[in-house]
Amino acid sequence: MKTILMQAIIVMVFVCGGVGLSAANTDSLPVDVQADLHLAKAKKYIEQKKYKRADREFQEILALDIQVPSVFFYHYGVNKLKLKDYKNAEALLKEFILNCDRKSSEYTKAIELLADISVVTSVSLPSNYTDSETGMEFVLVKGGCFQMGSPSREDGLEYIGEDPVHEVCVDDFYLGKYEVTNEQYRKYRPVHNSGSFVDDGLNGRNQPVVNVSWQDADGYARWLSKKSGKKYSLPTEAQWEYAARGGTDTARFWGNSPDDACSYANVADRTLYRKWGDLFEIHDCADGYVVTAPVGSFKPNGYGLYDMLGNVWEWCQDWYGEEYYSSSPRQNPTGPALGKYRVNRGGGWNNDPRLVRAAYRDWDSPGGAYNGLGFRLAFPVQQHAIR
After folding, report:
1. In a domain, 385, yes or no
2. What is the pTM of this model?
3. Same domain, residue pair 249 and 114
């Protein structure tokens, strides 16, 4: 493989000769030289702390399908550490150590970094956390990989934007045990009124806050972050679905039968039907609530999270992209860079079985709000700093 010096000479020839390094020009170079250029760019991005851009350069090298030098694994491993992808960082650094010159400075540094990873990943994280400002409870969701999305005809029906099914991996994170309540939200906006649905109130202190826009929910997360020092946010769509599934791969965390819902979720049901008749398509069971239920009224999923399906729709951080699943990265996807609508998930108190599924995706304007839409918060695991 050509040296970095040779790569620098090639860059100088292109620039001095007045030829820009466009994608087409780069593709015309020998693949080993292309790899050198991507590696140089990746190292520059790491210096500039643009770790996601660096990661894309490393992926470009892998796509060339060539034998790479051991130093590639070192720099790729360092970048994975910066992204807090400890599992892959460890694997890359071990690959480097097995194949490198042990007298090199990178070898010594790699050993130190592996020791750091060992310390970080051995830290015992509390399984629960309670925010002192609001009393909001959080559950540690241990990261992992899962199949995101659904077959195009889950439950025998066709749904838009849920395919292709693709593997996604998320890091550890904390997620609200319950949806944010009216009482908790009023610490931020004391005069907020969640309103009612005709003569059924939505404003109880332990009912989930509704009639809040994505902008309202994001504002609440920012306010609480400043108050507490935590980095609260709405969960990403991938975090939300991973948590909602609770370790299962069925349409709903309790199984595939929609009519088993009423032990686990507040949904459109016989209770709603008795009051409103055919206005709503229902699950064939009774949950006992016409509108929103106090949070935590039903059984939790396998991760100890309540109301991940039903009660209210929940805002996610991501912009909505109907075709996003076709190009989504595998590791910690965060949705399209731009969009018109924000994602919300989970279904609500007045929704039928089609919508109350872990894979179902809905979206609304960031400024939109209505009586079936609320949110819960997430925050990242606070790891030790890596040198």
Report:
1. no
2. 0.71
3. no
